[in-house]
Design goal:
Layout lengths: L18 E9 L4 H19 L4 E10 L9 H11 L5 E4 L2 H4 L3 H13 L3 E4 L4 E2 L5 H33 L12 E3 L5 E3 L1 H15 L4 H10 L13 H8 L8 E3 L9 E3 L9 H14 L2 E4 L2 E4 L10
Parallel strand pairs: 1-2, 1-3, 3-4
Antiparallel strand pairs: 4-5, 6-7, 8-9, 10-11
């Protein structure tokens, strides 16, 4: 017998990867930034899966919204089908907002997957359905969704204000009746029909009511902005308040913002600024609402264009 027995090192067997995992990722457009975000999501969640010895990555599901496909979620549907076929046990996703487009959709999916015994992990929020009571999970998801919607709304408002302040907002050159966009996307007058705008403003200053203007346009056989024989009173009223016809454009002047932006001489004018202002004064004069110390009150009589 040898005095020095031979010793062999026998490494432990690695645990068997038996928990079948699926990764779900979603982006809202096919822009370069969003596609880069998709790549980052897949990469991070793949590393997370590999770090757990018992997990086996089975499939990656990626939904990319676009102008052609809209909000279709074919991959999400395929993932749910795989869960029903017992091909998955765990779903990894970046965040609540990436898992569903709104709170209702997220909660509906959660209930479906809970009935199938599927575990869902939201990496960003550190939420795991295996460790969280269902009622608490619902409450948390609703709270996260509300906070994210508020943040998204603030970001959208900030972006709108920034573009308005920098003069880059496309709203400055948005078309309206008797304007067209030229090759550079700037506003240009449709010369043949600009006379209709002048006629509408002149008729109003001559004492015609909005309904009277509508009847006159229809009598003359002039089609509405949508090409119909009949005009809407609201269309005329909006036109008479649209400063764009005098060459100016106001943005964010709707009571929702603490300030607004005025772009003077933004586009070719169809009528003079004096005429536009005269119409605004006349509109206020005809209004049956007056401002007083006790707030807004209605006049006892409405304006009528009929001669007495």
């Amino acid at each position: 017998m040898s005095d020095n027995p031979r010793v062999h090192f026998i490494p432990a067997k690695p645990p068997k990867r038996e928990k079948r995992v699926g990764i779900y990722c979603r982006v809202s457009s096919n822009s370069a930034d969003q596609l880069n975000s998709l790549t980052a999501q897949v990469s991070a969640l793949t590393r997370l899966t590999a770090a757990v010895p018992q997990w086996l990555l089975v499939d990656v599901y990626m939904d990319i919204a676009s102008s052609k496909t809209g909000s279709s979620r074919k991959e999400f549907t395929r993932m749910i089908d795989d869960c029903r076929s017992h091909n998955l046990e765990i779903i990894l996703t970046k965040s609540i907002s990436r898992f569903g487009r709104d709170t209702v959709e997220v909660l509906d999916a959660l209930n479906q997957l809970k009935d199938l015994g599927i575990r869902i992990i939201f990496e960003q929020e550190s939420l795991d359905t295996a460790n969280t009571d269902n009622d608490l999970m619902i409450s948390i998801i609703e709270s996260f969704a509300q906070a994210e919607n508020e943040s998204r709304s603030d970001n959208i408002k900030w972006g709108i204000k920034q573009r308005a302040a920098q003069g880059t907002s496309k709203l400055y050159n948005r078309k309206c009746y008797r304007y067209v966009n030229d090759a550079d996307d700037n506003l240009a007058i449709n010369d043949e029909e600009a006379k209709n705008v002048l006629m509408i403003f002149n008729l109003y200053l001559q004492g015609k009511s909005v309904l009277g203007i509508v009847k006159e346009l229809e009598r003359l056989g002039i089609n509405s902005p949508t090409g119909k024989d009949k005009w809407c009173k609201r269309t005329i009223d909006v036109m008479l308040s649209n400063e764009k016809y005098a060459g100016n454009v106001r943005l964010l002047d709707n009571g929702k913002y603490d300030s607004y932006y005025l772009s003077e001489n933004n586009n070719p004018a169809i009528l003079s600024k004096e005429m536009f202002q005269a119409v605004q004064i006349e509109k206020q004069h005809r209004s049956n609402v007056i401002k007083g110390e006790e707030g807004n009150q209605r006049k006892s009589k409405k304006y009528s264009s009929k001669k007495k």
